[in-house]
Task: structure prediction
Amino acid sequence: MKIIVDVMGCDHPEKLVRGTVDAAKLHPDYTMVLVGDSDLIKANLGGGASNIEIEHAPDVITNDDVPTQAIRQKTQSSLVRSFSILTGSDDAIGLVSGGSTGAVLTGATLIVKRLSGVKRPTLASFLPTVDGKLVCVADCGANVDSLPEYIAQFALMANVYVKAVRGIESPRIGLLSVGPEEKKGDERTRAAHALLKELPINFVGNLEARYAISGDYDVVVSDGFSGNILVKSTEGTAKMVMKLLKSALTSSLSSKIGALLMKKSLKSLKKKMDYHAYGGAPFLGVKKLVIKTHGSSNEVSTAASINNIILMHERNIISEIETGLAAFNGATEQQ
Amino acid sequence: MKIIVDVMGCDHPEKLVRGTVDAAKLHPDYTMVLVGDSDLIKANLGGGASNIEIEHAPDVITNDDVPTQAIRQKTQSSLVRSFSILTGSDDAIGLVSGGSTGAVLTGATLIVKRLSGVKRPTLASFLPTVDGKLVCVADCGANVDSLPEYIAQFALMANVYVKAVRGIESPRIGLLSVGPEEKKGDERTRAAHALLKELPINFVGNLEARYAISGDYDVVVSDGFSGNILVKSTEGTAKMVMKLLKSALTSSLSSKIGALLMKKSLKSLKKKMDYHAYGGAPFLGVKKLVIKTHGSSNEVSTAASINNIILMHERNIISEIETGLAAFNGATEQQ
Result:
């Protein structure tokens, strides 16, 4: 079984190479295919591992490229080459890329293609919660103008995903809205609520954005536009509060001494809010496993993404998603 | 000139009374009318002030009441009495309430009524920014399913408001979306972008939620649903990070000593993120000034809200909003 890692188009290709080597050592049954500038890859292999292959792809898709054009025209780019390898054999099970989000999602849709019955694939991102766990937000920005039935499908797909990678038997799923009551929200959200109630999932109702990272939810489903706002404002606010804290810590001599004494505690706080530990966001609803990692990914997040691909593969989440959606689509068509 | 303060229906009516007394002393030209349980009010007047009147209203509208029903039926409630006094004379210029948001907005719409030309009034809330200033989010949750022209009106009204209360000549106004580019966002946001570009305001384009509190914007306009998610996730995340920080600070003896040494710096950090200092959220677009303060408001936020009513009154923001909207409505009707 092969896992493809597109190491280009992100901030630190060398860290993706090193993270892949770490993962290769942990998973000798899988072959890792590193795609990108072969000189750069070789220079960062370290001791390497026997289950690593290198695919030279000199060209890079950047955030300045128009995704659809780039996917069609930049055939020698590391990303398009990665997708070709992914779709080229049954052996290739998944792809990790830290490149342009738009290009990764476009490539997944155009080259890997949607699973039958999937209206819109969804990008599912984890946020750390206040109790040291994680909450999955789906959709977190791959979609806008989602119809209520898309949101219902996001919930079904995220349910399968969170079960697989976090081992939660019955994930608590909340619907992002402006108030906890069923009637709160815009027209789309109220219609989605009615659909979610009927699904074979643990739907716990609407939630307000202030409780998204409270630890009371395993999954937050949303239309994509508001989910993106939730994820980005949560990340942005946490970052800014930490920045303010840092400047407070160095604002006076006594603060500096205090900060030294608290170093260990502050480090554990920072670790709690570190997104690297849990890897990238899968694009659920396409025919193979695709994970988009952060542009600033490091060794830890690369290895975590690869690990999640293996977990998802071993738990058969693609066929589970197909089965779940077939039941849902059958039910809605009968109505 | 009278300013009415509904002290009931919030967590600490006594703090609203004391905050009003503070404001009354600062503004001897205005009369403050305290509405609520007269025994409770009298017990908290302290030395009082000569420019304070008390209106006994024994009944309370709570968050459990259905707003429309409560406004129509609970005629002896402090909130409905407050609205009656507000609309009863030209002398009464504004109202501050810490009661049920739904009831305050419903009362403002049904009793005070919209200004001519206003499609939807907007609730405009301040968030503290990382550089120690403020950003106004409009709409922050009074509306859902907003049309693009509502969003354009929110921008015009927030522009007038921020000029008045913050003294900024040309507020930088951003449109909440999922990416900075003009074409990013859902259908509604793209249409709103096109309208905002044509307005006589300092529209600086789309913004991502992660930069809302960066200090780069004075106003963030949104449809109301996503604005609510922005405000609540920002407040929720800041609160949770502070909670994590607090538990980190007391996790070991050396941390505790460190925290003591940093007490002053941490206090200034907490103050930076304190929403009390800048008062409540005005409901812009109705015929009189209405401010909804937080249910947990204290003396400081009550006095700040009253102060903002006076600022808005002295800057004639109601007639400014009318003029601005008339120009906009004239322009869109010509198209």
Notes: The mean pLDDT of chain A is 93. Chain A touches chain B through 56 residues (CB under 8 Å). The longest strand of chain A covers residues 122-128.
